[in-house]
Design goal:
By secondary structure, the chain is an alpha+beta fold. The chain has a single domain (2-64), classed as Alpha-Beta Plaits (2-Layer Sandwich). The protein has helices at 13-23, 50-64; strands at residues 2-7, 28-33, 37-43. The protein has a 3-stranded antiparallel beta sheet, covered by helices on one side. The model has no long low-confidence stretch (mean pLDDT 90).
């Protein structure tokens, strides 16, 4: 399992949800809301993309997050 701990002050919840929807075909993705962070968990990830999935997911979220909250 892969996971990301995302600071709420840097990542927009709407962008995270859009990224999860966009990447759903690559993994089983779950979102857990913590006090100051969002925890994104990736399960059932293909070994061929496992190395780059987290980085690409973050890049996608950051690009989406430039809009209004």
């Amino acid at each position: 399992m892969l996971s990301l701990k995302l600071n709420k002050s840097l990542y927009h919840l709407a962008a995270i949800k859009k990224a999860i929807k966009a990447y759903a075909h690559l993994a089983d993705i779950s979102l857990i809301k913590l006090k100051n962070y969002y925890l994104v968990k990736f399960n059932s990830v293909d070994t061929q993309i496992k190395v780059v999935l987290k980085d690409e997911f973050c890049n996608y979220m950051l690009a989406l997050g430039k809009g209004p909250r």
